[in-house]
Amino acid sequence: MSFDLIKKILFKFDAEKVHDFTLNQFASNPFYLKKLFPSFKDHQYVRSSNLAWRNKVGLAAGFDKNAIALEFLDHLGFGAIEIGTVTPRAQLGNAKPRVFRHPKELSLRNYLGFPCKGADFVESNLKLYKPKACLGINIGKNKDTPLAHAHADYSNLVKKFEKYADYLVVNVSSPNTKDLRKLQDVSFMSEILDEVNKVRVLNKPIFVKISPDEELSDLESFLKLLIDKNIQGIIATNTTIREDWGRGGVSGEALKEKARLVQERLLELTYYVDNFDIICAGGISTKNDISDLEKKGASFFQVYTSFIYQGPQVLNNLDRKNS
Fold first, then answer.
1. In CATH, what is the architecture of 3-317?
2. Strand locations in 220-285, DSSP E?
3. pLDDT digit string (tens) for 90-125?
4. Catalytic site residues?
5. What is the Cα–Cα distance from 273 to 268, expressed in whole angstroms?
6. Which tens digit of pLDDT belongs to each residue from 47-69?
7. Backbone angles phi, psi at 2, to 5 degrees
C-alpha cells in the first residue's frame, strides 16, 4: 500500500488521534514496518565542532515527545532525532481538539501545550535505546511552574538527560504554553542559562529554540547573550502565530517565509562565529529549501510537517541526488 493511499485514509480522521495511532504503531510494530518502509541509506555525515549527524536532515521535536518509537524512527534514516518537549513532571497539555491540518497550505496548527508523560518515563525509554542517529532532547518547563522558577525546571532536566543526549534544546518559544515566550527576555534567559551551565558536567552542546515572531532587529543582541553564556547554537525556528487561523502554532509551508527571514539573518550573523551552529527548522519541505539555505551557510536542517505530508519518503525527496 502506497503512502499516498495511507495518508488519504488517515487524513479523514482527527489529526491528533491519527498521530498517536501512528506513533504507537511505530513503537509496537517496528519489525513489520521496517519491511514496509526501507531506510534512507545514503548517509553523508555532516559535522561541526558541536554536532555529528549521519546526514543533514533531522526529525524535529514534537513528533515523538516521549521517546516511544525511536527504534523505527532511527531505522528511517534521519540524520538526527529530537525528542520532546520533555517536562519534569507529567502533564496533559491543553484541552482537545488541539491539532489541526491545513492541507491546502501543506501546514499544521497545534495548541498542544507540552503534553508529556514526564521526565522519568522518557528516561526509562532512553535507557533501552541504542542510537545510530544523533539524539537531541528538547526540554521545557511545566505549565504550572511560575516564570520566576522556570530556571529550576530547565537545569534539573539538563542534569537528568545530559548523559543520554548528543545535544539538548532549551525550548522557550512555543506559543502554546501561557507566557512561555516571555522567557526569551534577557533577564529570564540569562538566569536559565546560568543555572543550566552550573549543572553541565559532560558539556554536551546546548541549543536554544527561538520564535519566528520576534523582531529581526533583536536577533543580534539575543545571539550575543547566548554566545556570552557559552551556548552552542540556535534552532530557528519554532511555530508561528496566525491569529486569523485560530489559536496555536503554525508549521509547514505557512511558516516558511517568516522562518526563512530569521534563519537567513542568523546565518549571516554567525557566518564568522566559531563553534556556533544554526539548525534550520520551519518550512523545510523541498530540495530547493535546503540548497538555498546551504548557500547562506546552513548545514543542519529539521523537518516535521513535511514528514507528515510526505511520509518516510521525505528524506529521499530532500536528497539532491534524487533529482
1. Alpha-Beta Barrel (3.20)
2. 233-236, 240-241, 249-252, 277-281
3. 999 999 999 999 999 999 999 999 999 999 999 999
4. 174
5. 10
6. 999 999 999 999 999 999 999 99
7. -75, 155
